[in-house]
């Protein structure tokens, strides 16, 4: 069998990688009731229909994950899947503020995911780093929201030597602009963590501007709406800010009307480094290989995507050099 091209994935929610059979096993073990009892029923439930249904599946998954073992297994299972498709480096996202509301402690969530990082490296030789997300729309008071955000950052910093390299901002982008989180991301920066917020997925240019100026973004997750502002595109190219683009996710969530209209080729033509990513592969019915096919069909180059991954990864210099060497060997650049 042909060896797959090496790939770097920087935008994948680990909760969104749990395949139907795995979720069934985990929920059963934890005594969590699911609206399906066989793998086939579960697969049918997972099948993407529309955005509200996607949110239902997402919530069902996050509620079933309860223990350190669950979190570890989620990382290991995805690392195995992605490594089999050529991935050599992944930055996985998880949202710790969710599960701590109904069971595990902050430390159990973080140590479980970090154990997964170690096991993935040992078993599959893949480097995984973690970038926990702060939800901007947590169903709590504004004070509770900021408290959870600060807790995410402080706990992330505690696990820096175990693979946590940055923090992100997720959730409803239009309703909750980035500016109120400036203090939280300044703290993250002071504690040595990178800033990798979601912005410019469905929100406009102002949201990307806010992520850059108020949150000091090192990279932007999505960022596709920068296509609406040539000056912003020029700035992203000039400052070498990498965008973590997810074409199928954008189609599924309605952020773009069709793949033919996806702005990835325009962003690349403007000189912006873009990585290709699955976002929530299990829930969108895709994987890293199929997503690469989609991106290739838009006429962009996998070598450039790999290079963008090397450039944007929040890893240490030694790992980056190793990734660069893998890229040079495979893509002859
Ligand atoms: Zn995302």
What does this structure look like?
The chain has a 4-stranded parallel β-sheet with strand order 7-8-9-10. A 3-stranded parallel β-sheet has the order 1-2-3. Strands 4-5-6 form a 3-stranded parallel β-sheet, with helices on one face. It contains 15 helices and 10 strands. By secondary structure, the chain is of the alpha/beta class. Helix 7 links the parallel strand 5 and strand 6. The protein starts with 6 loop residues before the first strand and ends with a helix. The protein has one domain: Alpha-Beta Barrel (TIM Barrel), CATH 3.20.20.140. The structure holds zinc ion.
Outline:
Helices cover 50% and strands 12% of the residues.
Distance between the termini: 24 Å
Number of DSSP helical runs = 15
The small-molecule ligands in this entry are:
zinc ion
- Average pLDDT value? 95
Strand content: 5-15%
Q: Would you state the CATH class? A: Alpha Beta
CATH architecture: Alpha-Beta Barrel
| Helical/strand content category | alpha/beta
The geometry reads as globular
Which spans of ≥5 residues are poorly predicted at pLDDT below 50? Answer: none
Q: Can you count the beta strands?
A: 10
The biggest sheet amounts to:
4 strands, parallel
Could you name the CATH homologous superfamily?
A: Metal-dependent hydrolases
Number of domains: 1
């Amino acid at each position: 069998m042909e060896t797959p091209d090496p790939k770097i994935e920087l935008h994948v929610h680990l909760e969104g990688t749990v395949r139907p059979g795995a979720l069934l096993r985990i929920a059963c073990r934890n005594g969590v009731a699911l609206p399906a009892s066989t793998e086939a029923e579960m697969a049918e439930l997972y099948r993407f229909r529309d955005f509200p249904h996607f949110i239902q599946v997402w919530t069902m998954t996050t509620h079933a994950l309860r223990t350190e073992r669950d979190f570890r297994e989620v990382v290991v299972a995805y690392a195995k899947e992605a490594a089999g498709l050529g991935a050599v480096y992944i930055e996985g996202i998880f949202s710790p503020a969710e599960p701590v509301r109904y069971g595990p402690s902050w430390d159990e969530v973080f140590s479980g995911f970090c154990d997964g990082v170690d096991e993935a490296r040992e078993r599959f030789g893949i480097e995984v780093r973690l970038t926990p997300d702060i939800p901007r729309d947590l169903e709590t008071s504004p004070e509770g929201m900021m408290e959870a955000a600060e807790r995410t950052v402080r706990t992330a910093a505690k696990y820096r030597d175990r693979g946590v390299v940055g923090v992100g901002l997720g959730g409803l982008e239009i309703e909750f602009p980035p500016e109120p989180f400036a203090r939280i991301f300044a703290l993250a920066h002071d504690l040595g963590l990178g800033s990798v917020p979601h912005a410019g997925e469905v929100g406009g240019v102002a949201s990307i501007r806010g992520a850059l100026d108020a949150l000091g973004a090192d990279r932007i997750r999505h960022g596709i709406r920068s296509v609406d502002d040539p000056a912003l595109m020029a700035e992203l190219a000039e400052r070498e800010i990498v965008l973590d683009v997810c074409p199928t996710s954008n189609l599924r969530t309605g952020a773009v009307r069709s793949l033919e209209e996806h702005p990835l080729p325009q962003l690349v033509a403007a000189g912006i480094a873009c990585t290709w990513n699955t976002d929530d592969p299990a829930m969108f019915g895709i994987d890293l290989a199929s997503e690469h096919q989609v991106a290739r069909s838009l006429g962009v180059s996998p070598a450039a995507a790999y290079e963008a991954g090397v450039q944007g990864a929040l890893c240490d210099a030694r790992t980056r050099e190793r990734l660069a060497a893998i890229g040079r060997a495979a893509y002859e650049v």
